[in-house]
Structures are given as structure tokens and as C-alpha cells.
Amino acid sequence: MPVKLRAWSPNDLSSLVQYANNPAIAGFMNDQFPHPYTEETGRDFIAMASQEDPLHIFAIEVEGQAVGGIGIHPRTNIERKNAEMGYWLGEPFWGRGIITEAVKQLVAYGFQTFDINRIFARPFGTNLASQRVLQKAGFVLEASFEKTFFKNGEYYDELVYAVRRNG
After folding, report:
1. Counting Cβ atoms within 10 Å, is residue 55 exposed (0-12), middle (13-18) or buried (19+)?
2. Residue ranges of domains in the chain, CATH in brackets
3. What CA–CA distances, in Å, run from 123 to 12, 47, 65, 152?
4. Which residues form the N-acetyltransferase domain (predicted)?
5. Element of type H or E holding 140
6. Strands ordered across the beta sheet of 154-164
């Protein structure tokens, strides 16, 4: 199934809200990713994501439809050679290798576009599917921090996976 990363468009609003408005997704995202996910939230997000140059946040397109999102966020100061990656995928598309392919495409884009040597992601310790995605995409577990994330009244372990430009 072909996976394409592209800029978000106002035409993506309905699919964005349809797939993002899911507590199973929001539960593994930071608090900037709300639940419920409303049309107003979606419009604001698309406007913000569309203004970046170079693009940092992409729609994940499958069969002509935006079914998830992925982004790379270069750091500053002494972390300036690093970028954090985050992603989500609509639940009907889980388990098909889509997000693994999107991660691989974003890693290639990140190293080509930004002056960075390391891309990292920080999945919840309970998000086994995301950990498998990162491993399949060549990321290595660098660290595990006990009970550092606080979401919906509970503490969760934070894992740090990373891939480096030159292995």
C-alpha cells in the first residue's frame, strides 16, 4: 500500500477530525493533541502546519486520503544536532506497515533537510506498537525513564528511541 508524506491541506479537515478524534490515539500523545478532536482544533492545526518552511509536519496519505500525521521538530541550543519525531495513525489503518513506512520516509527527509545527526522519538512504555514501529525503522532504544510522563491522572514510563545519520 503506497504511503505518501505531504503538506496538510484545508481539504483534509474532515479526515483529520474523523481519525484524530479517538481516545486510543490521544492517550499516547502529548497534551497538545486533544480529545475530543474538533473541527476548530483541526483548522488551527492545519493552518499552523501549513506555514512552516521547510515543512516539519506532514499528512500521511494512503489511497488519496490523509489518515495520520507525522512530524520532525529540530531542537535548538546544545541539542541543535537533534530532532524529535512524533506521529499518529488512524485506527482503521493500524497493523499494515503504514506508519513504519512513514517513519522511514521522514527519517530520510529529516537527514536530507536539516543539519542534524540524530532523530529521536519518545513513546510511552505501554505503547508496544509504537516501539515495534521504531525498531522496524532502525531506531535503537537509548534510554528508559520510569514514570516521567503524566497523562490522564497516571504516570507512564518514557522510552527514548533514536537513529543516527551515520549509524
Report:
1. middle
2. 4-120 (3.40.630.30)
3. 26, 26, 25, 16
4. 3-162
5. strand 140-151
6. 4-6, 57-62, 65-74, 82-89, 118-121, 154-164, 140-151
Query: Which cell numbers hold the place of 29?
Result: 500523545
pLDDT, one tens digit per residue, over 36-79 is 999 999 999 999 998 888 999 999 999 999 999 999 999 999 99
Contact 60, 2 (CB under 8 A): no
C-alpha cell at position 88 = 499518529
Q: Which residues, 6 or more positions from 58, have their beta carbon under 8 angstroms from its beta carbon?
A: 5, 6, 7, 8, 69, 70, 71, 106
pTM of the model: 0.94
| Cα 5 to Cα 126: distance, rounded to the nearest angstrom | 27
Distances (CA, A) of 104 to 56, 87, 111: 15, 12, 11
In angstroms, the CA 99 to CA 144 distance is 22
Half-sphere exposure of 136 (CA within 13 A, CB side): 17
Cell of 124: 510511552
